[in-house]
Amino acid sequence: MESNLKYDKHVFICTNQRVNSERPSCGEAHGLELVGAFKKLIKDRGLQINIRAQKAGCIETCELGPSVVVYPEGVFYGKVQLSDVAEIVEEHLINNKPVERLRLRFVKT
Amino acid sequence: MESNLKYDKHVFICTNQRVNSERPSCGEAHGLELVGAFKKLIKDRGLQINIRAQKAGCIETCELGPSVVVYPEGVFYGKVQLSDVAEIVEEHLINNKPVERLRLRFVKT
Fold first, then answer.
1. H-helix or E-strand containing A39?
2. Helix H or strand E encompassing B88
3. The complex's ipTM?
4. CA distance B27 to B20
């Protein structure tokens, strides 16, 4: 089957580390911990062909970080902790139900 | 209007640099040049609120890199050069017509 989508779910985790800035940043250490936790759970479930989690630069939700975005649906999560990763994997990536308690919503002007 | 999508188009550009590996990588220098070119054109057109281009880690199309993916549609591009950026911005990001000559297609098994 030909498909536009290489991945059913493609998860980008901010690992941006600001230096000498008043603006908060998600942070490389915490971001990479999150990336590792996502990757491990996805691999443990044998889903790494169709679901990918990876690091990314700033996704511009710094004040609400650590930040994660899941495409193709474009669901952003904020204040994501290591303890939240299993729920995002099981509920959202596998069962297709975004985790509402962590979800960021945006008002377009 | 509340929307799931923070960005109408969210462009992730691989800046992964492999060291001591036989596998090719998109490369940090070229990747960051692409990021800069996308950002400049998007800003020049005043579109930076609704269109974002940013760096990302490996998107697993290394042999066809430099690699770019545009969400929410999940269109992957390969062998993207600086000279291709204007066409992707104008045709795809603004006019919503993916640039077929650069597009990667995937067969799901």
1. helix A28-44
2. none
3. 0.93
4. 13
Provide the whole-model pTM. 0.94
Spatial separation of the C-alpha atoms in residues A67 and B9, rounded to whole Å: 18
Which residue in the set A69, A72, A106 is minimally distant from B3, CB to CB? A106
Compute, in degrees rounded to 10, the torsion defined by CA atoms A81, A82, A84, A88: 110
B53 DSSP β-pair partners: B11
Tell me the shortest Cα–Cα distance from B78 to chain A, in angstroms. Answer: 13
Per-residue pLDDT reduced to its tens digit, A25-39: 999 999 999 999 999
With a CB cutoff of 8 Å and minimum separation 6, the contacts of A58 are A14, A16, A25, A26, B54
Beta bridge partners of A51: A9
- The answer to whether residues A14 and A54 touch, using CB atoms and an 8 Å cutoff, is no
Residue A28's region, left for phi above 0, alpha for psi from -120 to 50, else beta, is: alpha
